[in-house]
Amino acid sequence: MLQLTGHHYSAGVACSPKGRMYTNFKIMDNGEDYLMSMNSGLAETTVETLKKYAVFFKVNLTHQPDYIALGLSGANIDTILTNIFPDSTLPEQNEIIKVSSRGYLIKAPGIRTRYELWLHQDDLPLLWPELTKELIPATEDFWGLLNIESVIPELCQETIDKYIPQHLNQPSLGGVSFRKGCYTGQEIVTRMQNLGQQKSRCYWLTLESTKEPDINARLYNSNSKPVGEVIQCVRNIENGNTELLAVIRIEAAEANDVFFGTEKSHQLQVHEIPYAIDPKAELQK
User: pTM of the prediction?
Assistant: First the structure.
């Protein structure tokens, strides 16, 4: 929080005393308040957990269901947004730009150029006609697909308290600092980074099948031994494949030895992580 400057945002996580994440989020400083965005299934438990600590600080925590987040992407998205918001420059990495009375534009991470528009629902009718002139509304699964191919994992209600930040690649994604003071779960998280030998992390996998694994479904290697679990899953309507993020053993990922089901009839393709994983460099953040 001390590193978060005005009109910027950061990724972040919060952990239980056992170092397991109960939320991951983006948080922005809009110059007046801090706004946090996360999977809707995490909001209530996150607020209730943080309230236990908020009593020691001069802060008010509220759940704001009347705010929404829209994902904006496409081949010409920069030009389109410049036309929609002619009085604003597009945000660079980690910047936020105010585009309405209670609306903010941020540049979202990923392998494709894309943005997020955080809006109070009262501002949506004012911007929706302009947005839909050149942008086609899509389902939330499409944004999820962009997150999956970029290996940007998101906790959901089903995966609360299951993973430490390293399992979801959070140190490489800027969600963890190893140079700050103490925090809940720090001993376990920092020990893994300094002394541990990490055996699993998050990967993008493709399943060439109409089957869609459930969240937390187990994945196996060719010897029918469990090697990981699914954390996100969407259908790619362009080719009929199922794309998913899973926390799997690194050795299985590197050998491309991952199957859905013990019968070994559905092998998954493991993709390269599109960003550097360097534990030593992460310790400097």
Answer: 0.92
